[in-house]
Amino acid sequence: MSDPIDVAISDEAIRLGQFLKLAGLIDSGAEAKAVIADGEVLVNGEVDLRRGRQLAVGDVVAVLGRSARVAR
Predict the structure, then answer these.
(1) Taken in order 18, 49, 56, 66, is the CA torsion positive or negative?
(2) Which of 44, 41, 46 is nearest to 63 (CA)?
(3) Residue 6 near residue 68 (C-beta atoms within 8 A)
(4) Which of 6, 26, 53, 67 is the most exposed place for a label (fewest CB within 10 A)?
(5) Dist. CA 29–CA 35, nearest whole Å
(6) Banded pLDDT at 1 (limits 50, 70, 90)
(7) For residues 57 and 34, what is the distance between their CA atoms, to the nearest angstrom?
(8) pLDDT value at position 37?
C-alpha cells in the first residue's frame, strides 16, 4: 500500500462516498457504492460499509491499493 496522499476538504467533515470521488480513488458515485458494499474500503485500517460515514481531518481511507488522508 502506498503512502496516503493528503486531500484537503473545506468543511469539518465529509461523507465517505464523497471523499472517495474527491480524492480520485474512484471515478463515480456508483463505483463508490459498489466498492463500499463489497467491503473493499478501509477507514483507518478497518472495513467500513457505510457510504455516508462522516470522515474528519486525519482519517485515512484506502481502496484498491491506494490511500488518501483527509486534510484541512
Answers:
(1) negative
(2) 41
(3) yes
(4) 6
(5) 10
(6) low
(7) 24
(8) 97
> 24-60: per-residue pLDDT in tens?
999 999 999 999 999 999 999 999 999 999 999 999 9
| pTM of full prediction above 0.70 | yes
Helix count and strand count (H, E) for the chain: 2, 7
Name the amino acid, one letter, at 63: V
Q: CA torsion angle for 26, 29, 32, 34 (degrees, to 10)?
A: -130
Cell numbers standing for residue 44: 483507518
Q: What is the pLDDT of residue 55?
A: 98
User: The C-alpha cell of 49 is what?
Assistant: 460499509
Q: How far apart are CA 72 and CA 65, in angstroms?
A: 23
Place of cell 484537503: 8
